[in-house]
Amino acid sequence: MEWEEPHDSALYCLQTDGNHMIASGSSYYGGVRLWDKRQAACLQFFQLSSRPVSSPVYCLRFSSSHLHAALASSLHSLDFRQNNVYIR
Fold it and tell me: At the top level of its lineage, which domain of life is listed (predicted)?
């Protein structure tokens, strides 16, 4: 199977849950994508950087309830347990 980053950005990091999910961090705009290994298209995209300055996602970790991502000058935590995913 092959998954393609829609904006042709280099991937800086990725992690799998050991089952069906993959999270990838891109080189621009603090972008994190969630993928299902059984599907070719991205399931969800999170733009973590709200500033006009572009930052790669240098490192990420995720579980079924949270995603943590490190950018150049910030650390973001997403809580999937809430109805609306809250980015801090």
Answer: Eukaryota
> Looking at the domain assignment, is residue 22 inside a domain?
yes
Query: Tens digit of pLDDT for each residue in 37-85?
Result: 999 888 999 988 776 667 899 999 999 889 999 998 889 998 888 766 6
Please state the domain count of the chain.
Answer: 1
In a domain, 27, yes or no: yes
CA atoms within 13 A on the CB side of 6: 11
Which domain CATH number covers 52?
A: 2.40.10
Per-residue pLDDT tens digits for 57-68: 999 999 988 999
Through-space distance between the first and last CA atoms of the chain, rounded to whole angstroms: 33
Beta bridge partners of 21: 36
**pTM passes above 0.70:** yes
